Amino acid sequence: MWAVPGPYIHRVSRIPSLNYQRKHAWIRRVCQLHQQYGPVVLLSPNEVSVNGSDKFIHDIYTHNLPKSDFYANFTNHGGKDNIFASLANDKHLHYKKMIHKLYSKSAIFSKENDTRGVIVDATRKLIEVVHQSSISGQQPDIHCVKPQFNLHAKGHRKAWFNKSGRVRNLGIETFTLFGCLAMDVVSRFELGKDNGSDLMSNPQQRRIVMEHRIVSSMGFWTTLMPRFWEWAATKLVMQCLVDITQFQLNLYALAEKNLISNGKNSTTLQALNANGLHGEYAYSFLTDNLFAGHETTAVQLCYLAYELSRPAHAPLQAQLRQELVANFGRPTFKNDVIDDLEKLDKLPFLNALILENSRVHTSIPGAEPRVVDQNTYQVNNLKIPAGTIISCLPYALHREPSVFPDPDSFKPHRWLPLSNANESHEAYTSRIKLQQKYMMPFGKGIRMCLGMNIAQIEMKAAIANLYWHFHSQIDDDWCQVLDNDDPIKLGRDNVPSPGVTDQDLMCMNDYYTTSPVGDECWLRWFEN
Ligand code: HEM
After folding, report:
1. Ligand 1: centre distance to CA 447 (Å)
2. Is any atom of ligand 1 closer than 6 Å to the C-beta of 84?
3. Model-level pTM greater than 0.90?
């Protein structure tokens, strides 16, 4: 390992790496090390980062090197294993065979399955909530204004909500709202259409989403310092954990009482039971999915709605609306919902928005560590010995300047044929193929996200239906809204304290999973 470039201090100790991660500054540090030392750098005595080429994604993820023990701490319910936490490939494959069919696109689209209904119903509720809480102002979003569970939120420090005294078109905290949507979808998908949460219809219950965030904020201690977790946890964290466990167990008890088939296909709970995993052994899988499946989706939806709401991006919002009206006409009633998910899935501009958002604001920008297994890995004339932890950094790959010009900027048109450059079909296809090779929003290889299809269809349904009915603006009671197109930065320490502009408050947290540093995003909605 002495031949691998990197700073001396990282070579002799793991402490610098841990310290940067504790301070939420590690992604930027790894990017800086790559700039200084090149595509292969040493991160700690036993850990290497490789970036700058899709070859690394292929060697590490497509070739399925096993996960490092970073993931072993994602067990639940007293250390019970699950698909995400399992390390060895054979064990993982055994788990994957039990459930993977339920997550395929054809299973989601199947009319005999409840999943499409779950997504459409949740979308309809989303439209209703936006109407009631913002458009008509009948049920203002007071549950998110001063939440004891969101210590980073502006409302926690200062009264600002609706200081203009509006009666209509009020701000809604969309990060939490999208978290609720995603929790309702994932819990109903995993447990059956009548057995999941209904946070959309019950605003007073939405605090559970904020409580999940409090527990997730312990990521450093959970994954890297599990022995010190209890020492680091505050009373609030402990309380949130108790509440979340109770919330989950209530859902699982309801689902077990109502075990009926989810259409033709069974639910994840039933598939696990059928494969001999019962009680906490099944719950560990479900709990992981409830966590993994709602926060990641909420982050994506929140950043996309935010990007569309920025004044400089008004033309993007208009282009999306144009695409929707051209394909579906205009809504007749206020609760009309586009439910042709197959057609939605194919809309080019909506697709470009989803892709660009998952590139710039990927929910998991941090390294996905794997272990060099039996054989030495030879790269750039360097020999990386078996047992070394190795990873790519999605944040860096998504910003590879030779593939994504002006990489920090939000430019959905990069996913469409370049109209002003008269790009041929062949040139367009090979450019997109190359861009896709560098994308890892859902991971790559056999350990790639199992819920990807559900998340993508759910996000498309939510964004399409919102902008079919409404247009949005950043709430200028919440923050000073800037009209420039500057990229959103990474890392809380980039932001003056307290942040006053939308770009400050939407700065991305520098960690394995990201979120807006203020843990909130207030948007106002207007009928089209
Ligand atoms: C936009 C939303 C989502 C994003 C960005 C996302 C991203 C990811 C990523 C990057 C991984 C691989 C992580 C790693 O190897 O370190 C992963 C794994 C996983 N995700 Fe997601 N995810 C999303 C939604 C979901 C949903 C909705 C579900 C469940 C319905 C889900 C279930 C899983 C599972 C089970 C794994 C582990 C797969 C395995 O090891 O075989 N995810 N996800």
Report:
1. 9
2. yes
3. yes
